[in-house]
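Help wanted!
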Amino acid sequence: MTSAATPLVPAVYYLRILPEIVLTVFGAVIMLIEGPARHVGRGRTTRWVALVGALTAFAAVWIQSRHPGYAFSHLFRVDGFTVFFGFLLTAIATVIILMAMDYLPQQHLDRGEFYALVLFGTVGMGFMAGATELILMFIALEISSISTYILAGYRRHAPKSTEASLKYLLLGSFATAFFLYGIALIYGATGTTQISAIARALAHPSAGAAVQTGQIVLLGAALMFIGLGFKVSAVPFQVWTPDVYEGAPAPVTAFMSAAPKAAAFAIFLRIFTVALAANSHAWFWLLWAAALLSMTVGNVAALLQNNFKRMLAYSSIAQAGYILVAFAALGADGVSAVMFYLAAYAAMNIGAFAVVSHFAHRDERYVDIRNYAGLGFRAPWPAFCLSVFLFSLIGVPLTGGFFGKVYIFRAALHSHLVALTIIGLLNSALAAYYYLRPVVAMYMREAPVLPALAPGAPAGNIEPPIPPTAMSGPIAVVLALCVAVVIWLGVFPGSVLAYALRSARHLLHG
Amino acid sequence: MHPALFFIFGAIAVAGAVNLLVQRTPIFSALSLVAVMGALAVLYLLLGAEFIAFVQVLVYAGAIMVLFVFVIMLLNAQQPESSHRSRVARLVGIPVVVLLFMEVAGVFAATYSTTPVGFSGRIITVQAIGDALFHQYLLPFEVTSVLFLVGIIGAVMLAARQEPPQPPEGRLPRAQAAGHGGSGPTPEMAAALRQPARALGGVGASDAEPHAAGTEVKPR
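Answered by r_m:
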């Protein structure tokens, strides 16, 4: 409450939220120049502005990291945790913008709003990562959510996209309402919305009101768990995921599966492991059950999918389950495993979606796994990259996914979560089946000879192979970056894990 | 505070609420609700809660009522669908109303007192709220503007007149729309699929072998 007395905002506060300021300014600039830019330089100005904005924000995170501490009356804190997520989120935004440069012209959807919404969404997620107060968290969560609701409906001429947007909006609003109700109850029980103050109030409950307050806190924690469980698509709050992932434009799906999920895990961690740490015995089993169900339901459902995006949607539910295992392990080990896995997962999942987005073609016609038959010989490089990402999602050694899973299950074993670890390992084995299906299709299946010439041939039984597709510069950069990160995390995981571990200690011990 | 004012505006509120129920035309009901909201705002003001009074006028009498009136106008609801034959309404509604009245009466009887109430102890002024908003909660206050901006962009983007995505040549989409539902790419489709590659200005060459592809994509 230092600044309540001093009317002036110290300059260092602005440095501490510099990435968010940069992103907001660039987003606003894009909206301002969107009109004139359509007639200048064949409408390509906005995307380059967006790319520069995201890269500048990435650099701004580095400046932010030089100024650790609280900002704006203890509402925002720059620590290792914030900076880790700041780098991750701005990197994701950069890659998504590159991906959109390839995808949007292909779909004839090239408009500036897309880039502005990605940048604004990242503003919200950046604040989610650093917020140490529930009201700011809520507003930031809303910014990120509303941006993604809109982006999901970006292919307006496609009914599926509109359906995705509407479903996501309606269900997401309910989830947000649950989260808000949880905040209200926690405030009612503790009289504060500051994370650290809540932790103090719960650690030393005043003798008289302890029992009643305890129940209100548990109810509030449960409601917040529902809201955040929805955002990270944990079972049983996952029903929206396949439809929204399928309907949303492919780069948006990539964005949704990585960035808002990472940011939601950031506030999840901050609220549950810091603010509600004193009550961990009560919410631990919620986490345990959600982890178990997410892994199992996600993997079993993914086995049955033919649509690549739906398969990756169920896979992302399963991956959220693995992350929840690490979360349930608690402690610095668990938190750092969550962070490492989120980084590895972002690289491999965005990479996989980049390939899907590249080959989707007009109106996302080719998104069935059977479309990929024989692609390994016709488009060797993208097929190779896709294989790397899928192997990483399985958890094959030398990929980031392998070490991600190793750290998760190690943390779980340290915390004696033996049952959860065994089920997680079984699930990983099960998951190999559906992750290998596209690989098998690409390398071991011939592209079918089209029966389209024969008049009256039964349509729909044979999925047409993906036609030749020119590789554009941006998508090549995206694939190269994602492969590099996946391999780097798989060969030299040490530095990132050490950083995550330090950040986790920052988070847990103030 | 001023008993006369309290009774006048209290009476207006009650009269408005009764009028709301007995009116048959929705728009009159909505307007009586405005009167109720306005009268309640004055009651809040009499209690010393100035900020709540202003917000009551701004949010309820202003924004929310305008929304109600818009919906009524848009749906063109002149006369409501008659429901006075509904037995469910009577069987369930009347007991619930009686129950609610008994509950209110019970609470009223239990806490009845003639001493005037007010927020005299901790009066929440606009100044106090402004102070909190611009000092302690400055950051959320500013960040909310990004939230609204995103909302506006979304509303404009999703509600704006839809222009169907047009490839450069005008004849392609029509030919495509008329195309048969065959599973293979027709020549028009194949041509349309090559458009994006051209639009990108040939950044990077095709990584697939053109000859092999040519034999597979049969129609050519």
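OP: Thanks! One thing I noticed: Chain B touches chain A through 50 residues (CB under 8 Å).
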